[in-house]
Specification:
The protein is mostly beta strands. The protein has one helix at about 1-25; strands at about 30, 40-50, 50-70, 70-90, 90-110, 115-130, 140-150, 155-165, 170-180. Helix content is about 10%, strand content about 65%.
Length: about 180
């Protein structure tokens, strides 16, 4: 988990420093904002991760915007819930997690239909497991991360590919982002 946080920070710093070198010669017209302060986004994704089906969903509100070397960035907060249903060799179990997170977005517009919004969310989460496969059925607390890319088809609808992690449960899936 620590590696993911460090890699995320390094990528943001490299992106901002690289963009700073180009910002002096061009205004980076391909870097765009897809979120505005006060905007409510709702995410939902379904995927197969590990030995079962995982669902990841929750709302996000964008709180502000700022600019680093010509790169428009948006930040906000989200709440996510995750649930995983798994079965293996006659055993079955249910994993669950909830987490609030702070989010950061940056967008790229390479011309229709290539309009993307990358996002990362970091926070703290609560997760647990119950079932017949694990001997552990308790609750744990730890770091949470929700990362993905949204491919925008319209102003209010995007296809997302995302990964979520909360101390005990990981989900990876494909879903939608609705901007309300």
């Amino acid at each position: 988990m620590k590696k993911r946080i460090v890699v995320g920070i390094v990528l943001i710093l490299l992106l901002s420093s690289t963009a700073g070198a180009f910002a002096a010669s061009s205004p980076l017209p391909w870097m765009v904002s897809y979120n505005k302060p006060g905007q409510l986004n709702v995410y939902g994704s379904v995927g197969f991760y590990g030995l079962g089906i995982d669902i990841n969903a929750g709302p996000e509100i964008i709180l502000g915007q700022f600019d680093i070397a010509g790169i428009p960035l948006e930040w906000g907060v989200m709440a996510r819930g995750m649930i995983g249903f798994s079965a293996f060799l006659g055993y079955s179990w249910l994993d669950w997690a909830v987490a609030p997170a702070a989010t950061l977005h940056w967008g790229v517009d390479l011309g229709a239909p290539w309009q993307f919004d990358w996002y990362i969310g970091l926070g703290l989460g609560i997760s647990g497991s119950t079932g017949t496969y694990y001997s552990y059925t308790g609750v744990g607390f730890g770091f949470a991360s929700f990362d993905g890319v949204a491919w925008h088809f319209s102003k209010n609808l995007a296809l997302v590919v995302e990964y979520g992690y909360t101390q005990y449960l990981s989900t990876a899936g494909v879903g939608v982002k609705l901007a309300l």
